Amino acid sequence: MRSFDYRRAADRTEALSIAGEGRARYLGGGTNLVDLMRQNIEAPAALVDVSRLPDSIEETPTGGLIIGAAVSNSVVAVHPAVRTQYPMLSRALLAGASAQIRNMATIGGNILQRTRCAYFYDVAGSRCNKREPGAGCDAIDGHNRYHAIFGASERCIATHPSDMCVALAALDATVHLLGPGGEREVRLLDFHRLPGEHPEIETVLRPGELITAIELDPSAAAANSRYRKVRDRSSYAFALVSVAAGLEVVGGRIEDVRIALGGVAAKPWRAVRAEGLLRGQAPTRARFLEAADAELAAAKSFHGNAFKVELAKRTVAAVLGELTGADA
Amino acid sequence: MAIVINGTNYPLPDDPRVSLLDFLRERLGLTGTKLGCNQGGCGACTVILDGTRVLSCLTLAVQADGRDVLTIEGLASDQSGLHPLQQAFIDHDGLQCGYCTPGQICSAVAMIGELRRGDPSYVTADLVEGPKGGLRQEIRERMSGNLCRCGAHNGIVAAIEQMLNGEAP
Fold first, then answer.
1. Which among B40, B46, B140 is the nearest to A31, CB-wise?
2. If B94 and its partner were Cys, which of A159, A306, B60, B155 is the partner (CB 3.0–4.6 Å)?
């Protein structure tokens, strides 16, 4: 690990001013960043520790929740309001990593975690455009079981590893940011970028900007929601495919539906097409499968991950089935 | 900057690159905490920081400034001997080579607190009600961050179950 300066920020203003001094990174729980620094994939000149900034979870005037970026994944997962009003978020967090890592990891850090593509990590032996722009991508013709089926480019087919972000995408959460230019808000759905020509640019964060909070709006679909993660072992593994879904049925018709997929793209993938086909329809297994089929029609798989297309279809239908009691 | 480890105050290292794990093992000689993968994959380095279980390999020592660390060395006492969970691991053969054991035990001590507090896990059927029944499945899910290459997991689960049920060793 290369040497760096370490400073702990007393408040957000101080965090921004320290970060503005040079090539610095904000440090949350460190579960991803410290590892990447040890692998010499990240080499910041300074770490600005923001893990002790205010970490409250508060109700908003509209009955939603605003969750400080420094709150740990564990604390959010077990919070009573999250368990009752946003169960897909609670389950997504509990599906991620291990208990030890959830205790350390912050909400802001979870959003900013980087891909687990093995070629991205293999500094000595592999080409990776994300790590070294222009170097090439060894995943495209390599071991790509864990890679993207949506939104990939010729430069990069990596996936975003977060479970939490899949639920936040389905919930249409808002990310609160503070930067040298002041405060702004970005929809979680617009926060991560698809790789295109520049897989090394992963988010819309501007230099020096700090994630300060995420905000959730209440809804009946959020309160009736689930998260299912399919993986190679039953716990402590990244998703092959995951589904966050919420459903509101009124008078036998789907009033509101939210579906997002994980493990399939460089960002959490909101299944807009499937949602559009389901709204106003009766909640039946046939409809669920039809909608999932339509969503996955746009998928483009590689030799190692073609199974994800069928897996994603069935998982979407199964989770929607669980939410309605329709046979899954 | 200082840190409390098993009740004793220590000054923190000047170099911020030093992990809490290396600080414990290499600078303080507290070698009970083990170095496994050094990348957050195995749980061998688990310690209890301000009451919660964390991975000391991915914690920078400076991040623990002012905090309270409990390691395997701090669990047993001169007065009462082994921690009951240490005894339960012996009773149930919850180890073979023993390398992952300090991490398993520190992890399980904190995990028992989470379970008794009613925190749900990914396998908890009712998130609002919290964990009810399915104890072995709950233990397995909650301990999934601690790998045992010898495969002593059945004994580990049995030891933790004994501790939770308050059975005499």
1. B40
2. B155
Query: B84-165, what's its fold?
Result: DNA polymerase; domain 1 (1.10.150)
* Residues in B touching A98 (Cβ below 8 Å): 43, 144-146
Residue A90 identity (one-letter amino acid): S
CATH class as words, domain A5-51: alpha beta
Q: Which string of DSSP letters, residue by residue, matches A46-91?
A: EEEE-TTS---EEE-TTS-EEEETTSBHHHHHH-HHHHHH-HHHHH
Q: Domain A225-324: which topology?
A: Enolase-like; domain 1 (3.30.390)
The closest alpha carbon to B56, from B68, B45, B69, B40, belongs to B45
The CATH number given to B2-73 is: 3.10.20.30
Residue of chain A with shortest Cα separation from B14: A6
The ipTM is 0.97
Mean pLDDT, chain A cut into blocks of 10 residues (328 residues total): 96 94 91 98 97 94 98 98 98 98 98 98 97 98 98 98 98 97 97 98 96 98 98 97 98 98 98 98 97 98 98 98 78
Domain residue ranges of chain A, discontinuous segments joined by +: 5-51, 225-324
Nearest to B57 by CA among B88, B26, B78: B26
Which of B69, B72, B97 has the alpha carbon at shortest distance from B8? B69
Considering only the beta carbons, identify the residue of A30, A74, A83 that sits closest to B59.
A30
How many residue contacts between A and B have a Cβ separation below 8 Å? 94
Tell me the shortest Cα–Cα distance from B99 to chain A, in angstroms.
18
